[in-house]
Predict the structure of RING finger protein 1.
Amino acid sequence: MGQQTEALIQFHRCLNLQADFVPAKSQIKKILEAGGVAVPDEVPCILQVVSEYLKEPCPITSLSGSQGPTRPEVLKRTLHGDEGEGKGNREAHQGSKVKHDSGTECCLSLCQAVSFLPAAEEDEEMMMRKEDGHGKDESSHCRAKTLGVLTVSDFECPLCIRLFFEPVTTPCGHTFCKNCIERSLDHNLRCPLCKQPLQEFFKNRKYNPTALLQDIMTQLFPSQLAERKQVHDAEMAELSNLTKDIPIFVCTVAYPGMPCPLHIFEPRYRLMMRRCMETGTKKFGMCSYEHGKGFADYGCMLEIHTLELLPDGRSYVDTVGGSRFRVLKRGQRDGYHTADIEYLEDLEVDGSELEDLQHLHDSVYQQAQDWYERLGSRIREQINRQYGTMPDTEENIQASSNGPAWCWWLLSVLQLDPAYQTTVLSLTSLKDRLGHVRLVLEYFSQS
Ligand SMILES: [Zn+2]
Ligand SMILES: [Zn+2]
Ligand SMILES: [Zn+2]
């Protein structure tokens, strides 16, 4: 009996909202006639008969009275699929198990779905507001009708609490922005909401957008979605900036033109690499660690050539050194270091100064070659495999803003103390750099 009463209340609500809702009408008839009550044909009369039959008008009025404030909550539960905590959710699930011809239970869930429709008064109010603004047309009427039920907050990502951007739904049924769930998976391979393991989902990395959700948002909240996209684009532009707040990988000293293979496993660097790829810059700064400062005052840009993602989230990244830079200001972003930087270029000289420089260059190159030749063939092969063979001299030693490539090759091969490496990296005078290389070669030739 309790279930029938509940059903009657629901059908009453349905019919009240939508007079031509035939299933509700026929179900009411069925229930009441089974109880020996004659049911009229006109909807207003039916509603009255139901009220009288229940002999307790309170449940109906109180239900429809509380309808407004409780509805969004119930709806949210349904949308977010929260382990069937919501009454509506549990019952909808129950309803789906019942065959269509077996009576009231099936229709109960149907009615509940219908009960999310806005009440008539609310609808009119919406239309009035719309008319004040942009005038009345079919689509704005439609939107107003749905807006009464769904609000922007129903389309919020539980991780960033903003409108979904590229929503992705996990196998456990929870939805997040693509970037948000990826960041969460950097730290933990479980759903941040229900803690279900997501290893398989992560392994495939098939983060397809939830198309229906995107369509609904496009239809219902076009301006908010456009705004959200603008915010995203602004963030991307910020992340693409290669002088202000550039990402800094704190690990080693990299040199212009020299390969720098990296093994990425820390969550913050996974995020950094992903952003470099997503923005398309494929570039980040590399600095060595320096006590007290976090990282050194000078570094070298690295460009990602290949990035191999491993199933467990780690990755192998092949990079090559580019421009050198000086750190102007240190910062942080989402757990990794950033810096405002200025790029360094060798100062060009000419006349007799250039002549002297050429002489110095030639003699240090000869010195380097002698050292290289004196190495055992086994060590030389090892070096060649890792760093390539020793580069030739260049016709114009000032052609590159980083000076001759062989200097950087030699400095990589010699594996010096990071602080010393950084010092040599910071020099913008080829003459000074050659001076250091000469000293190092003399040291290595003695030992
Ligand atoms: Zn998000
Ligand atoms: Zn989940
Ligand atoms: Zn499909």
Observations:
- The longest strand covers residues 315-333.
- The longest helix spans residues 57-80.
- The domain at 151-234 is CATH 3.30.40.10 (Herpes Virus-1).
